[in-house]
Structure formats: structure tokens, C-alpha cells
Write a structure and sequence with these properties.
Structural class: alpha/beta
CATH architecture: Alpha-Beta Barrel
Radius of gyration: 16 Å
Largest sheet: 9 strands, mixed
Distance between the termini: 19 Å
Oligomer: single chain
Bound molecules: zinc ion
CATH class: Alpha Beta
Helix content: 25-40%
Number of domains: 1
CATH superfamily: Metal-dependent hydrolases
Length: 213
């Protein structure tokens, strides 16, 4: 199964210019089986994403992109604390070790590599440094590719994954029309809901896929 794990809609993520309908149209046109909606620090109200999924006749799976002290973390499954309280990464790891929730590290080197980081004066670390980050191996998977990251970031991430192997995923991180499904994740098992998705990610039954066009 092909699933895009990471996409933002307007107006729930104010950085996105794509409506849910536009994201679904793009994911459908690339032949995806499902799309995860992961707004920043906010979930869709109970039932609303299911209703939209029925209306658009396309599987939509709820997630959230949490801001933590180590950066953004994608979360699939329930959380015990209200989101407005926020999470430290350590707290999140402790909690998901007890629950079935899956956590994925998106754009893992964006703060230290790529054009934006360079402009901010960061010197790109070696792959060994990235592979040695504590949070690298405490998530269930690393987002290896997305539309919000550049090839130098993809290369550094790939090199770090060789030194410290982790399950890896592809995801669009779509913030605009036409981007959903540009990268996706292949699941070897069948996924029909967020519980199943989290279980497959936690089991490492995932691999990244890139679509052309
Ligand atoms: Zn992010
Ligand atoms: Zn994002």
C-alpha cells in the first residue's frame, strides 16, 4: 500500500495554501491508497476527517506534527496530554513506549543542512554526527525525503541512515496544491486505520517511494 504520511491543509496549518480537496486530488492522481493529515500542533475535530474521507471517497488518516524541543515530530495515534500543553521529546518517547502510538522524525536535518540552514550560518554536520543524535534512534522512523527538503538534506540523511540504520519513510509534507503524494511510503502490510498505520511503522514495515510528475 502507498500512503503519504505528511500533509498540511489551509486553514488549519497557516503555512499551507492547499485545501483538503486539493491534497486528495493530488494524492489520488498519483495512485496513492491513503493520505495522512498532519497539521501543526492541532488535530482535526473528532469525526470531521472521517466525514471528509467519506465525502471525498478517499482514505484519510489522522496524525499531527508536534513541535518539541528537538524540532517537529510526526505522531500517529493517541496522546495522553492535551496538545496545548506541548511535549518535550523525552516525555513523548516515554509515553509512546507504553502506548501503540508511532513517532516519525520529519525533515531530520533541515535545521543544520540545506539552504535555509546555510543562510542562518550553520555548518553542515557529518553523517556520523547526525547518526549519533540521541533522538535519531528514539523515533520509530526517519522521514528520508519530502518536498520541503532539498537533495543535500536527502543525501546527508541517507548517509546517516547507513551509519545508524532506522526504518525510513517518504512523505510529501505538502503545503500546496499538486504536492500530496510526490513522495510516499510503501507499507508491506494492509493499513485501514491509524492504529494499523502506527503498528506497521513501529514494526518497521515501511520504505520510501518517490513519484515523478
Ligand atoms: Zn515540520
Ligand atoms: Zn510538516
Amino acid at each position: 500500500m502507498l500512503i503519504d504520511l505528511h500533509a498540511h491543509t489551509t486553514p488549519r496549518s497557516n503555512c499551507s495554501s492547499a485545501t483538503l480537496e486539493e491534497l486528495v486530488e493530488s494524492a489520488r492522481s498519483r495512485g496513492l491508497d491513503a493520505l495522512c493529515i498532519t497539521e501543526h500542533d492541532v488535530r482535526w475535530p473528532e469525526g470531521e476527517l472521517e466525514d471528509a474521507s467519506r465525502l471525498l471517497k478517499f482514505p484519510l488518516i489522522p496524525g499531527v506534527e508536534l513541535s518539541t524541543d528537538v524540532g517537529h515530530v510526526l505522531v500517529f495515534g493517541p496522546l495522553e496530554r492535551p496538545l496545548w500543553l506541548g511535549y518535550r521529546f523525552e516525555q513523548l518517547v516515554e509515553e509512546v513506549s507504553r502506548t501503540g502510538t508511532a513517532i516519525v522524525l520529519p525533515h531530520p536535518v533541515r535545521s543544520v543542512a540545506g539552504a535555509r540552514a546555510k543562510a542562518a550560518g550553520h555548518v553542515e554536520p557529518s553523517a556520523a554526527v547526525v547518526a549519533g543524535w540521541e533522538h535519531w534512534s528514539l523515533v520509530h522512523a526517519i522521514e528520508a525525503v519530502s518536498t520541503q527538503t532539498v537533495s543535500s538534506e536527502h543525501e546527508l540523511t541517507a548517509a546517516a541512515l547507513i551509519l545508524s540504520p532506522m526504518p525510513s519513510v517518504g512523505a510529501s509534507d505538502a503545503h500546496g496544491p499538486g504536492l500530496a503524494g510526490a513522495y510516499a511510503t510503501e507499507f508491506s502490510g494492509r493499513v485501514v486505520d491509524v492504529e494499523g498505520l502506527a503498528a506497521e511503522i513501529r514494526a518497521g514495515h515501511v520504505s520510501p517511494v518517490k513519484f515523478h510528475g
